[in-house]
């Protein structure tokens, strides 16, 4: 039976990795998810075989049924616009589960003590690490969910100069509680209170770390919390001697860490700076600060259609506005009309456009936009200068030239899409409100920019109808 469990785990790990490879492109992503799901099913079966106690089987199966009942409906019916917060919530549930597993292992072991049994060091360290990181991930993810769902304000909520000392005290308190537990404060049931203190301090730390982080940094935060959840799961697997948890946790932790680093570089911000918080407004339009009144040029669907119909190349820059309006299918139809007229259409994808990693890629893949037409920032930036028209659909901060030109801007130094270098720019927006970072965008007032106000889906549809009549 032990050999069977080992074989099933190995097959499951191979399917995890193979499924992850499928996520590198929209065409193979669904199949990759399905393969990884089958791998997880095998891992669960292997665990049931390893448990062997039918009483525990009943509890495990009951947990699976409850989990499926609670997890499937939101996964199936949540709109793509709300997918970032769903990802944040599901990730938080994973971290909270790991923290509860660590607590249950602590209770089952009647407390931890290195002094009583030095051979249990891996179990103790793994469990306490999982408890701290899992609790941070759970409560931090709830705050990320609240900000993305706009239950909480997207702007930073901070204690000012006291924020970092406060966070440091919480971390020191959680680690100190873990040290006291590990050194054997188990006599008289005292260690139970130390364990509760550890979970509470780590939970408050999760809240305190994410609350000061603004909406503009939220995609990176989601990725970072996902990595933390993976690491905590791997640590719990070490404590439980469960190979499946170790491998799956390390895959999630490693991939999440790599993605977090890549996204931080794409914003030209260090991960410590992001965790320090204080940046990212949440949609409140801020004054430019120079006292100069600016005007914008409005355009109509008919004029926009004429501009694009006689262009050689059009670049579409999707942003969260496209997601809110669910305009991706309309954009695909418009692009097909342009391509029939001989216009080359490409899509410029910024790494942090939207509210989660790959948000725009997922939306456009849903509309069956060719993957070859999706161009990453580094590949497309050199083409804006020879582009006749760039169509910006609800993308604010990732097209803001202040990041390149204004040293006083909070986003100065962040790599952006060089939209302002195009011969003409059409921006689709509902209003002149700023983006999620709360920073005014000079692009909107440029001489080469025209604004097409209204719902993005309706505006794109109107442009498509005008194209049909040309």
From TrEMBL:
Q: Which reaction does it catalyse?
A: NAD(+) + NADPH + H(+)(in) = NADH + NADP(+) + H(+)(out)
Sorted keywords for this record are: Cell inner membrane, Cell membrane, Membrane, NAD, NADP, Translocase, Transmembrane, Transmembrane helix
Query: Which branch of life, at top level?
Result: Bacteria
Any Pfam family the entry gives:
PNTB
Checking InterPro entries in the record gives: DHS-like_NAD/FAD-binding_dom (IPR029035), NADH_DH_b (IPR012136), PNTB-like (IPR034300)
Q: Where in the cell is it found?
A: Cell inner membrane
Keyword Ribosomal protein found: no
Q: Name one GO molecular function term.
A: proton-translocating NAD(P)+ transhydrogenase activity
Protein's membrane topology: Multi-pass membrane protein
Domain NADP transhydrogenase beta-like residues, every copy: 6-465
Report TM segments: 6-23, 35-51, 57-75, 87-107, 119-145, 166-186, 192-213, 220-240, 246-264
Q: Which GO CC annotations does the UniProt entry carry?
A: plasma membrane
This protein's major location comes to: membrane
EC number(s) for this protein? 7.1.1.1
Q: Which PANTHER family match?
A: NAD(P) TRANSHYDROGENASE SUBUNIT BETA
Family assignment from sequence similarity: Belongs to the PNT beta subunit family.
Briefly, what is this protein's role?
A: The transhydrogenation between NADH and NADP is coupled to respiration and ATP hydrolysis and functions as a proton pump across the membrane.
- This protein's name: NAD(P) transhydrogenase subunit beta
């Amino acid at each position: 039976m032990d050999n069977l469990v080992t074989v099933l785990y190995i097959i499951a790990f191979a399917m995890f990795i193979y499924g992850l490879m499928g996520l590198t492109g929209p065409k193979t992503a669904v199949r990759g998810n399905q393969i990884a799901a089958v791998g997880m099913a095998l891992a669960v079966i292997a665990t049931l075989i390893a448990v062997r106690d039918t009483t525990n089987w009943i509890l495990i199966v009951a947990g699976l049924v409850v989990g499926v009942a609670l997890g499937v409906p939101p996964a199936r019916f949540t709109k793509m616009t709300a997918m970032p917060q769903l990802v944040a919530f599901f990730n938080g549930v994973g971290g909270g589960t790991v923290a509860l597993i660590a607590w249950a292992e602590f209770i089952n072991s009647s407390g931890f003590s290195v002094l009583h049994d030095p051979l249990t060091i891996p179990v103790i360290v793994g469990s306490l690490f999982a408890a701290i990181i899992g609790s941070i991930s759970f409560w931090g993810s709830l705050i990320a969910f609240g900000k993305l769902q706009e239950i909480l304000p997207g702007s930073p909520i901070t204690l000012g100069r006291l924020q970092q000392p406060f966070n440091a005290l919480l971390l020191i308190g959680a680690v100190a509680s873990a040290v006291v537990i590990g050194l054997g404060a188990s006599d008289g049931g005292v260690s139970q209170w130390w364990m509760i203190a550890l979970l509470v301090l780590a939970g408050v730390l999760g809240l305190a770390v994410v609350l000061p982080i603004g909406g503009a940094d939220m995609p990176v935060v989601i990725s970072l919390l996902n990595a933390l959840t993976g690491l905590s799961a791997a640590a719990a697997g070490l404590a439980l001697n469960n190979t499946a948890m170790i491998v799956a946790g390390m895959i999630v932790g490693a991939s999440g860490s790599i993605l977090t680093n890549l996204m931080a570089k794409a914003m030209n911000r260090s991960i410590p700076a992001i965790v320090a918080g204080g940046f990212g407004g949440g949609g409140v339009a801020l004054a430019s600060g120079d006292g100069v009144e600016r005007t914008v040029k409005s355009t109509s669907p008919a004029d926009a259609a004429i501009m694009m119909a006689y262009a050689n190349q059009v670049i579409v820059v999707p942003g969260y506005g496209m997601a809110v309006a669910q305009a991706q299918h309309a954009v695909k139809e418009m692009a097909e009309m342009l391509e029939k007229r001989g216009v080359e259409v490409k899509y410029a994808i910024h790494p942090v456009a939207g509210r989660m990693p790959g948000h725009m890629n997922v939306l456009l893949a849903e509309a069956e936009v060719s993957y070859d037409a999706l161009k990453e920032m580094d590949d497309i930036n050199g083409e804006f200068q020879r582009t006749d028209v760039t169509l910006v659909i609800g993308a604010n901060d990732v097209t803001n030239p202040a990041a390149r030109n204004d040293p006083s801007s909070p986003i100065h130094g962040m790599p952006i899409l060089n939209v302002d270098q195009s011969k003409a720019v059409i921006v689709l927006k509902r209003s002149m409100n700023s983006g999620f970072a709360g920073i005014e965008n000079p692009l909107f007032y440029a001489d080469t920019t025209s604004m097409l106000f209204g719902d993005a889906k309706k505006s794109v549809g109107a442009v498509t109808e005008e194209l049909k009549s040309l």
